[in-house]
Amino acid sequence: MNPKDLWNSVLGEIELQISKPNFLTWFKNSELVEKKEKEGLVFVSLPNNFAKEWIKNRYHKLILGSLRTLDGSIKSVEYVVRTQNLNPLTIPVPNSKKTFSVSEEIQPILIESKIDPKTNLNPRYSLKNFIVGSSNELAYAAIQAVVKDVGIKYNPLFIYGGVGLGKTHLLQAAGNAIKDKSEKINILYISSEKFINDVVWAIRNKRTEDMKKKYRDVDVLIIDDIQFIGGKTTTELEFFYTFNVLYENNKQIILSSDRPPAAIPTLEERLRSRFQVGMVADIGYPDYEMRLAILKTKISNQQLRIEDKILEQIATKVQKNIRELEGVLNKVVFYQQFKGEKIDNKKLEEIINETIQVSAKNVTANEIIKAVADFFEISQSNLTERSRKQEIVEPRQITMFLLRELLKLSYPHIGECLGKRDHTTAIHAYEKILKEINQNPALNQKILLIKERVYKM
Ligand code: ADP
Ligand code: MG
């Protein structure tokens, strides 16, 4: 049998023994490239290192067994990464001298830089890489004014706009720009969710003095998604006091929300009027030119090559959410570089539909649990049992992470879903994965592949 036929027969057998998605993910781009007759050695090539390691660890026995039933002279298999057809790109990783070659480590766009634990600022967000157009120029100008005259000009600065339009980016970039001006300025960025948790925790543990100090000692307080604070009486009150102390001392406050102050229904009147005393600026939907400019900037920052025609099509079709715009771009990169697929119109259409559906489709906790279990080829009950085996611990932590990230489930609920575990276990798992995802491209890829399945179910 020639190598091609031999491998096709092996694939035929393997296909019957593992799930279809796993088969497609791992074997679709595999090849048997060479057989050394004398040594009884065959070489199987895979598109990248990640696939190679995965196949070696999980499917080696299956592959060797199947090869040997078909050809008794085969004694061993070696797995290699295919190197032909790869453009010789290397991708610089922010803040690092290391470069990854595309063939080995994919997902460059998702490699994030480190978040500063003191300020919660992520250096990936800067004013320089924020594209300005008519939809966001007011908000951008207001942020610039605040950076220039901290605490004086527009206080508080309240920025509002729909999901994925750049609020977090602008707030973070403002923090980074102020930090660049002077290391002495004490900045704190926080989501309102975290603020609420802090308040609740402090009250429960009788540590309100510490908490007050933490928030009232800063020079610049940035709270993202403040709309969540509405209706939480104690938190609102605590925030109200903090706000007053900071405001009276000319400390800068920057807030974001998905809607203007007047439209946050449960917000107490006195807080609402506080929000309106400074500057309120909105961010609207980006126009075509701006969408295209965003895509082109992302591509050139990452030194990637994607055809203009494809970028134009993405910019035409994804209109209302810059996060989705990036999501589509990430996937195009993912398919092109990781899976080695050619992106034609049909494929692009598929990617776009899939990504935009993501926000429309309601995924359930069970679907996530099932997708993780299938991906790792373990049973769903493995995820809920009390095992500490690494083969189970990692999938379980990833499940917890995804339940939080995709469904925003509360930690106690997540603990409940995974075998009545304590909520602190869920918090630990979420934070651990969140931290590692930035440092570990392989983990990042696993999560991306699992998400892809979740949304295809
Ligand atoms: P929001 O907080 O409003 O939901 P984000 O700030 O998280 O939105 O933005 C979503 C994504 O889009 C981020 O990755 C962000 O960097 C990117 N983004 C948003 N607006 C711009 C812009 N004007 N220029 C470049 N990137 C942008
Ligand atoms: Mg945000």
Q: What is the CATH topology descriptor of the largest domain?
A: Rossmann fold
The number of strands is 10
State the helical fraction: 40-55%
> What CATH architecture label of the largest domain applies?
3-Layer(aba) Sandwich
Work out the strand percent. 5-15%
The CATH homologous superfamily of the largest domain corresponds to P-loop containing nucleotide triphosphate hydrolases
Distinct small molecules: adenosine-5'-diphosphate, magnesium ion
**Mass-distribution shape:** elongated
**SSE arrangement, N to C:** HHEEHEEEHEHEHHEHEHEHHHHHHHHHH
The top-level CATH class of the largest domain is Alpha Beta
Sheet with most strands: 5 strands, parallel
The strands making up the biggest β-sheet line up spatially as 7-8-9-6-10
Q: From the alpha-carbon coordinates, what is the Rg to the nearest angstrom?
A: 25 Å
Distance between the termini: 38 Å
In terms of per-residue confidence, which ranges show pLDDT below 50 for 5 or more consecutive residues? 84-112
Number of separate domains: 4
Alpha-beta classification? alpha/beta
Overall mean pLDDT stands at 86
Count of DSSP helices? 19
